[in-house]
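Write out the 3D structure for:
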Amino acid sequence: QVQLVESGGGLVQPGGSLRLSCAASGFTFGVYVMSWVRQAPGKELEWVSRINSWGTSTTYADSVKGRFTISRDNAKNTLFLQMSSLKPEDTGVYYCAKLSDWYSLDYKHRGQGTQVTVSS
């Protein structure tokens, strides 16, 4: 059974940083593309970033490019999202998701999320 548990969210001032983690279990983490998605209050789920199974290829939404860095530790079955220069519009619940392939837009296999609030 796929289990994904996000952590590391919180309240941060604009311009601040946070590092999110996602602990994975119940599947062979190291062979899957993984992604971060987020959902702001009253808005639809938004893709943020994805990383290939080896951690050698990444891509980002334009809204976070240059500020966020996705990474993974396959030995520890953990996915990360380093967020810096945070803006109020980054506020939302952040989820990690297991993808079937690089081009998948199906985020049904995701965790319970961690809340990120950017506010002064």
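Residues 99 and 105 are 8 Å apart (CA to CA).
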